[in-house]
Amino acid sequence: MTVDLLLGLQWGDEGKGKIVDVLTSNYDIIARFQGGPNAGHTLEFDGIKHVLRTIPSGIFHKNALNIIGNGVVIDPVVFQKELEGLEKFNLDIASKLFLSRKAHLILPTHRLLDAASEAAKGKAKIGSTLKGIGPTYMDKTGRNGLRIGDIELADFKERYRALADKHEAMIAFYDVNLQYDLQEMEDEFFASIEVLKTLQFIDSEAFLNQALKEGKSILAEGAQGSLLDIDFGTYPFVTSSNTTAAGACTGLGIAPNKVKEVFGIFKAYTTRVGSGPFPTELFDEDGATMARVGNEFGSVTGRARRCGWLDLVALKYAVQVNGVTQLYMMKGDVLSGFETLKVCTAYEYNGEVINHFPYTIEPENVTPVFVEKKGWKADLTGLTSYDELPQEFKDYVAFIEKELEVPIKVVSVGPDRTQTIQK
């Protein structure tokens, strides 16, 4: 069998959690391949909202196995709280959830380092979620990190102490007034480590490749969005991992030739959380309306999302980098009521009109070029078939498909798993 990938194509928050939840029944294994607890996948069904940070979205489906791959970074404290939040659902976590031994651990001092580093940057801060993600990936690439597999070693606490002491020296170097009680944080950390020990640790690359040999189907689930990729995103306002299709291979230990379908998820408009350039951002009533109707607040951070018109230059770039084969458009219902919709189809870049995504999209270099499309008035949230959708909506979808040269297979018209229309 092969592996299908599900990726966000914008700056995150595209609605990946809902689509994974919808797709899960088609797969034997759901595997998360990068990121950490800074990502939040929101699932809504039976009138209840659920937010998952690290655990794959297939955990609510009784037949799916869920794997946290080697490319993920895990905060044991956050992970324990996430497990506790699932207790009321009576899920068989022990037999359904597996952790890669090669996944790295977020230490309490990683979070402190994150806070100290961001505070030291002042106005130049990059908008970190302060979850310790960046420092953990820095230790990973610097070959200093601790991994899930280290928990099983007799000298784990000694390894922890050596790294934590190094971190404290680095925190002092930043010379910021950071107040903390490390002993209290460590007591919580090691209590959570004991909880992790009750779960199954696996050599995930061997596990997944054996599953493929046995004919199992795998859905690889990304976190954040393609424009936050450490290599291909709007650097330095990016995350610390590869959020694109290539990251699925390195984050799970699966060869590129095993990948079949690449599902690309995008919103019918554009949002961004935190700092960084955003060419189509709106500062008027239209932007405020998108934020209000779309409930644009981070599921984990609670931070307000910046809103703007759909940017097809950036979207086309993400489609290209990921090799997207199918598109899923989310939150089409949020645009109901706009008389006119604008879509960015090109940039004015240093005096020249371009159609590709350039090295920098800072506002002093880039001005978006818009085309206008007719809006629709109808409330879409109760519709169940594509034929019922307004013609203006279908025209909007057809325009996007033509520009991106990839079919839009699904449109979402509300947060519940039932509000998902196959095209």
Average pLDDT confidence is 92
Assembly form of the protein: single chain
Low-confidence stretches: none
Which percent range fits the helix content?
A: 25-40%
Physical arrangement of strands within the biggest beta sheet: 9-7-5-2-10-1-11-15-19-20
Largest sheet: 10 strands, mixed
Q: Determine Rg (CA atoms, Å).
A: 21 Å
Distance between the termini: 26 Å
Distinct helical segment count: 12
Tell me the structural class.
Answer: alpha/beta
Question: How many beta strands in the DSSP annotation?
Answer: 20
Shape: globular
Percentage of β-strand residues: 15-25%
Question: What do you see in this structure?
Answer:
The structure is a single chain. The chain has 423 residues and is α/β, with parallel strands linked by helices. 31% of the residues lie in helices and 22% in strands. Strands 9-7-5-2-10-1-11-15-19-20 form a ten-stranded mixed beta sheet, with helices on both faces. Strands 14, 16, 17 and 18 form a four-stranded mixed beta sheet that branches. Strand 16 and strand 17 form a beta hairpin. Helix 4 runs parallel beside helix 6. The longest helix is centred in the middle third of the chain and has 19 residues.
SSE map:
Layout: E1 3-8, H1 16-23, E2 29-32, E3 41-45, E4 48-52, E5 65-68, E6 73-74, H2 76-86, H3 93-96, E7 97-100, E8 104-105, H4 108-121, H5 133-141, H6 156-174, H7 182-196, E9 200-202, H8 204-213, E10 218-221, H9 245-252, E11 259-267, E12 270-272, H10 285-293, E13 306-308, E14 310-311, H11 312-322, E15 326-330, E16 340-349, E17 352-354, E18 366-374, H12 391-404, E19 408-412, E20 420-422
Parallel strand pairs: 1-10, 1-11, 2-5, 2-10, 5-7, 6-8, 7-9, 11-15, 14-16, 15-19
Antiparallel strand pairs: 3-4, 12-13, 16-17, 16-18, 19-20
